[in-house]
Design goal:
By secondary structure, the protein is mostly helical. It contains 8 helices and no strands. Helix 2 (22-34) packs antiparallel against helix 3, helix 3 (43-53) runs parallel beside helix 5 (93-103) and helix 4 (57-71) runs antiparallel to helix 5 (93-103). It is elongated.
């Protein structure tokens, strides 16, 4: 029941945006954010609708913060993602949230927390390099990506020794 209400709000909001009624669309998207919960499979759809179709940074921050708190429920006991978001390289909830925040002009510190969580979950060198690549793609920060790769790879080597 909850899922259909959220989807209805999102679809109605996109329809209103197409007809240039952005105020009503924001209200519907805000309702969709309010009813998101850990069972919501359309979290990425809500974030994407806010990011693509509005310029409301406050609503984007609210949605991303709620998604950040929900994201831990998307992981199993080993820290692996239970279900994937629809996007290609944004396969992890934390990567998707960070991307929405950075590209939408949202809270950068929350985006950095997402990356920190990803780094804590790293189990091998390939995952570390993948996160460094993600930092480069999302934040466009070569220095940070290189330092993450070098620092975490040396930590990983020390663990293995």
């Amino acid at each position: 029941m909850q899922k259909s209400h959220s989807n209805t709000h999102i679809l109605q909001a996109i329809w209103l945006i197409l007809f240039n009624d952005t105020n009503s669309a924001r209200e519907l998207l805000a309702k969709a954010v309010d009813i998101m919960n850990k069972r919501s499979e359309e979290i990425d759809f809500v974030l994407e609708a806010i990011y693509k179709y509005t310029d409301d940074v406050v609503l984007l921050n609210k949605a991303c913060l709620k998604a950040f708190n929900i994201a831990k429920f998307c992981l199993d006991k080993n820290g692996n993602v239970k279900f994937r978001f629809r996007h290609t390289f944004l396969h992890d909830p934390y990567v998707f949230i960070a991307s929405c925040l950075v590209q939408g002009g949202g809270d950068i510190s929350l985006a950095e927390k997402c990356i920190d969580i990803l780094l804590r979950r790293c189990k091998n060198q390939a995952q570390i390099l993948d996160i460094a690549d993600t930092i480069l793609k999302i934040f466009d920060d070569k220095k940070w990506a290189i330092s993450v790769a070098l620092n975490n790879l040396t930590k990983q080597k020390k663990k293995n020794v």
